[in-house]
Specification:
This protein is mainly α. It is built from 4 helices and no strands. The protein has one domain. Helix 2 packs antiparallel against helix 3.
Length: 87
């Protein structure tokens, strides 16, 4: 029961929590963690190198971008989806 200073969660907040706890969401998050780990292990094994420095930079940028977007989705919070438009 909320205290006097707290409002009950909104419908959207409750749905977001339900979504985070849903088994499909949990599977998706685990899949993203595994994919991110594959990127990191491939990078550590030198899979994103080329004889050409520019090509190596591009391959590394792609791997870093892939890791970042996976982490961005894993770290998503309610406010990321429901913040007022224009902020």
């Amino acid at each position: 029961m909320p205290s006097n200073n707290q409002q009950p969660p909104s419908r959207e907040q409750s749905e977001f929590v339900d979504w985070l706890q849903h088994p499909c969401t949990k599977l998706l998050q685990e899949n993203f963690r595994e994919r991110r780990q594959v990127f990191m292990e491939a990078w550590a094994a030198g899979k994103f190198t080329d004889t050409n420095n520019a090509a190596t930079a591009m391959l590394n940028a792609e791997a870093i971008g892939g890791c970042k977007i996976l982490q961005l989705v894993l770290d998503i919070e309610f406010e990321d989806l429901y913040q007022p438009k224009g902020n």
